[in-house]
Amino acid sequence: VKGRISILGPRGTFSEEAARRFDPEASKVFCSSIDEVFDSVEKGKAEHGIVPVENSLEGSVAATLQLLLTTPLRICAEIVIDVKHCLLALPGSRMEDIREVISHPHALAQCRGYIKSLGDVRTRNLPSTAEAAREVSVKRLRGSAAIAPRIAAELYGLTVLAEGVQDEGRNQTRFFALGRECGDGEAEKTSIILGLEDRPGALYKVLGYFARANINLTKIESRPTRKSLGDYIFYIDFEGDAREERVGAVLRKVRARATFFKVLGSYARIG
Amino acid sequence: VKGRISILGPRGTFSEEAARRFDPEASKVFCSSIDEVFDSVEKGKAEHGIVPVENSLEGSVAATLQLLLTTPLRICAEIVIDVKHCLLALPGSRMEDIREVISHPHALAQCRGYIKSLGDVRTRNLPSTAEAAREVSVKRLRGSAAIAPRIAAELYGLTVLAEGVQDEGRNQTRFFALGRECGDGEAEKTSIILGLEDRPGALYKVLGYFARANINLTKIESRPTRKSLGDYIFYIDFEGDAREERVGAVLRKVRARATFFKVLGSYARIG
User: Fold this and answer.
1) Which three-class secondary structure state does DSSP give residue A77?
2) What is the predicted pLDDT for the residue at A179?
3) Distance (Å) from the C-alpha of residue A192 to the closest C-alpha of chain B?
4) A98 by DSSP, 3-state: which?
5) Which residues of chain A does B39 touch, with a Cβ-Cβ cutoff of 8 Å?
6) Cβ of B208 under 8 Å from any chain A Cβ?
């Protein structure tokens, strides 16, 4: 049986590209929300699910971080994709005809400077970059252009008016491949969620365990818990495999100080 | 001359409520993006601007954090608003007629569980909760409901089908009031942005300065810089006023270790 991968649909997004990198052979199950991707893997409708975690311009994806808090799924891999946004329009369109640019709010934000440079142009939010491309195509929106990956131009018969229109040359999105089980290949990184008491030095003490074991943190983010602002949990990523004794010893010390502790997984990086 | 406050428009959002708390007398300048709020205050079209920073369910507002990195504006106050979402529809609508729920993506995410409980209902993103209410009203969308604050129901002549429909009882949004100058009232909190070398213990060392001075951190968030993922800066909030010598001494030590350092302001909290 070939594996199945749940992906945030529709076709033609960077999520699909990430899924292809993780497993080019798998059959794809397209979902309408990040929620649904988690749900479909939890219920066994797919072996793996691909969710966006973080973008180098926009920061964390709140829905994903929130769902990681409660899911029984593990992180099996991280996939980092170079994002190159394109401006797509109906064939025959010219740049000077464009009065409206539509896309996912993150993509619009990443191209803020470029859109401004187009002059008197409105923006409109759509649920995904590919749905923006589809809307231009299906509704025959002359005067509108979608910001979307090149793959969406082929899919919906659009012209690429401009390529690489993001404000910063280098723009990467990090995805997690989630699964009920992960196999036991080599792992380079580990992600944990940690709750700490709200008092001076609580975080400092915990980071000391990592520093003294010479473990490099690659991400730390406090987020308000669902109770009230001010009561925080921490999302921490670091280099190392939780199954190594050196790392496991640190995690046991961390856990002893935590009000909440969850290892999301140790995983390899797919470049 | 009365003060002017720039706010993310349209009328009838939680941003307007935050502005009213900060200065009920000020005249309001409605802007179409967070970008424009910053811009209008930087250019002197208003004395202050209100921007959302963080929500207790959804986490940080990426656009605001990004603009804080480069703006010359200071944080003059933080305003914390209790968010109570309502389901608004055309007068005469019944719950069982609703086939679509529209709102800002954050509001939809905050009401995810409630929307699921409505059964077979689609969601659609709009740029703000108030624009969702306006769309239902102006387009006479029977079968659609907007998730928006109660104030939007009055503004657009809609019926409140349900109140407090967010999944968690307590849902707060934190706003900053920004200004070119802030006056010198008492300040309870300070926000800084910090760049550090990417190596084990770098953050630990810096947090030690705060811990030893008994200064409580209320937020820490690493964010990828605009160069590439993995190269991080930190947004840190803590209790205390940067103009106090005790706090100033800590900040001088922190600055000496930082590759980037910016004090965004010390400010009072408006509850």
Assistant:
1) strand
2) 97
3) 15
4) coil
5) none
6) yes
Is B189 in the A-facing interface, judged by CB distances under 8 Å?
no
Q: Verify whether the Cβ–Cβ distance A200 to B210 is below 8 Å.
A: yes
CB atoms inside a 10 Å sphere around CB B172: 17
* A271 has pLDDT over 80: no
Contact A148, A106 (CB under 8 A): no
Report the alpha-carbon distance of residue A62 to residue A59 in Å, rounded.
Answer: 9
Contact B252, B245 (CB under 8 A): no
Q: What mean pLDDT is predicted for residues B75-97? A: 94
Rounded distance, CA B121 to CA B158, Å? 20
Tokens of B244: 């106090």
Residues B165/B146, Cβ–Cβ less than 8 Å: no
pLDDT of residue B242 exceeding 60: yes
> Which residues of chain B lie closer than 8 angstroms to A207, CB-CB?
203-204, 207
Q: What is the pLDDT of residue A228?
A: 56
Q: What is the pTM of this model?
A: 0.80
Residue B200 touches chain A, beta carbons under 8 Å: yes
Displacement of CA A191 from its chain's centroid (Å): 14
Tell me: the pLDDT tens digits for A60-95?
Answer: 888 899 899 999 999 999 999 988 899 999 999 999
Nearest to B200 among A54, A216, A223 (CB): A216
Chain centre distance of CA A83 = 12
Chain A neighbors of B220, CB-CB under 8 A: 203, 220-222, 234
Using an 8 Å Cβ cutoff, are A89 and A159 in contact?
yes
Q: Given an 8 Å threshold on Cβ–Cβ distance, is B56 in contact with A226?
A: yes
Q: Per-residue pLDDT tens for A192-225?
A: 999 988 788 889 999 999 999 999 999 999 887 6
How far is A114 from A109, CA to CA, in rounded Å?
10
Share of chain B above pLDDT 90, in %: 68
Average pLDDT, chain B: 91
Alpha-carbon distance of A229 to B60, in angstroms, equals 11
Matching residue, tokens 């990828």: B224
231-270 in B: which are within 8 Å (CB) of A? 232, 234
ipTM of the prediction:
0.73
Judge whether B180 and B265 are in contact, CB under 8 Å.
Answer: no
Among A70, A222, A227, A254, pick the best mutation site for testing chain B contact (most B Cβ within 10 A): A222
Cβ neighbour number for residue B157 with a 10 Å cutoff: 12
B66 within 8 A of A57, measured Cβ to Cβ = yes
> How high is the pLDDT of residue B140?
96
